Amino acid sequence: MRVILPSTFEIAASGGPIVVLTGAGISAESGVPTFRGSEGYWRVGSRNYQPTEMATSAAFAAMPEEVWRWYLYRRGICHAAAPNAAHLALVRLERQLGDRFLLVTQNVDGLHLRAGSSAARTYQIHGNLDFCRCRSGCTPAVRPLPEALAHDWAKQRPLDGGELAALRCACGDWLRPHVLWFDESYDEPLFRYISALRAAETSSALVVVGTSGATTLPARMCEIVAARGAPFIVVDPEPTVFSRLAEGSARGVFLRGTASSVVPSLILELTAPV
Asked: Is 126 labeled as catalytic in the residue annotation?
């Protein structure tokens, strides 16, 4: 089955954007691990903690220094990676479509922004490891990580006194990573929850790249687009919940392959004139 893709002219006529939803798969092709496997375990004393235990407000309350060390190690791995062909193709799509383009990413590695995607048209619905915020809610709500923190971080490296001081807000409370933790919920001010759903409701097409559907907001976006019968394209090396949803929808298609091998050619088709 071949999806009928909207051209740029159709997008302009409909008024809705092309929405691209990306997950861990696109970053994995740049060498960023998912951190849900053995790469994500973190040893504190004699115990190994799983990512679902480390990435929680409860863990941060109990051992903030260890949680920060884990995130700084993860951030170092992300900074060692470079955007791939799929990231760059999405930058070209945004430059061609302007405000008729929206990127919604579950990835916290910042690779889309480093590739050249604009912050204004990128909803980072799980946050970004390069940013933090005060645990007590001081303003600014989201701020860049302090310059004192190195981009490369060895796994067993401790925090020194200067780094610990830099991770404190002016109010005295801890700064925390700007990420959505497993025991927290999406919201609009920090994670663009309502805006992402509205984008799905008005989109001319939804392109899903490298995500398996493990979190609620991406799943809801895909369900909305499938129910509307709008063009719904899923790119993934293997079948997923989203690929099956797309194949069962009116104008959906599953393009099996890696992001870097499929997305650049898909972008050319999406922007081809009629």
From this structure: yes
